[in-house]
Amino acid sequence: MSQTHSQSDKIHTNRFFFALELGFYAGLIWGGIRWIFYAFHFTSILPGFLLEPFFKHSFLQSMAGQVAGWLSFIVLSIIASLLYVLLFRRAKGPWPGIVYGIVWWAVLFIVLAPLMDMTLPIKRLTWDTNISELCLFLLWGLFIGYTTAEEYTDEKTREPEEVLG
Predict the structure, then answer these.
(1) Which of 21, 63, 114, 153 is most exposed by smallest CB count within 10 Å?
(2) Residue 146: which of 158, 154, 135 has the closest Cα?
(3) CB proximity list for 37: less than 8 A, separation 6 or greater
(4) Which residue has the higher pLDDT, 84 or 156?
(5) Of all helices (H) and strands (E), which one includes residue 165?
(6) pLDDT tens digits for 62-87?
(7) Can you say how many angstroms the Cα of residue 46 is from the centroid of all Cα atoms in its chain?
(8) Is residue 8 part of a domain?
(9) At 46, is the secondary structure helix, strand, or coil?
(10) d(Cα 20, Cα 77) in Å, to the nearest integer?
(11) CA distances from 48 to 1, 5, 62, 110, 123 (A)
């Protein structure tokens, strides 16, 4: 039994709730990977580096501090997802997300981190740390950007019913 759908029957995704959910999962997944990177010494930057201006360094080195760091990365991811969905939801393909992740890395590690004493300047960090963090943020941005692109620019939803069927 075939049903005909008009353009007005199309279900629209709530941008705010989509961005919240996307940001939560982006932070959960990629924050967890950041923690693994730290545990295996791919990076020397604490999982809680975002909280460095607000907590003692000794606390951020503890297990509770590392969990707090993971939670702070989830919050960062929610904010980043909200911004991406608000500004770039119609961008197609993987490249906008990759660029978005690199921009976040640059803002955090080149501008804010040294300014707010969250990390050492990138010139004083090891190559392993710089490459690991850059790649992680690149993939994190790709996750946010490409997931958003799939949700808001999915061509399959524009196909006639007969073609899908």
Answers:
(1) 63
(2) 154
(3) 43, 132, 136
(4) 84
(5) none
(6) 999 999 999 999 999 999 999 999 99
(7) 17
(8) no
(9) coil
(10) 9
(11) 55, 49, 10, 17, 21
User: Tokens representing 143?
Assistant: 């996750």
**Residue 165 falls inside a structural domain:** no
Q: What are the structure tokens assigned to 121, written together?
A: 């300047």
**Residues spanned by the domain of 100:** 13-153
Total domains present in the chain: 1
What is the predicted pLDDT for the residue at 62?
Answer: 95
pLDDT at 117 > cutoff 50: yes
* Angle, CA of 11, 159 and 146, to the nearest 5°: 65
Query: Is 142 in contact with 98 (CB distance < 8 Å)?
Result: yes
Q: Exposed/middle/buried for 94, CB within 10 Å: 0-12, 13-18, 19+? A: middle
Please tell me the distance from the alpha carbon of residue 142 to that of residue 29, in angstroms, as a whole number. Answer: 13
Res. 151 pLDDT band, cuts 50 70 90: confident
pTM surpassing 0.70? yes
Q: Taking the chain, what is the end-to-end CA distance rounded to the nearest angstrom?
A: 11
Helix (H, G, I), strand (E, B) or coil at 104: helix
Q: Are 135 and 9 in contact (CB under 8 A)?
A: no
On whether the CB atoms of residues 5 and 163 are closer than 8 A, the answer is no
* SS3 readout for 58-76: HHHHCHHHHHHHHHHHHHH
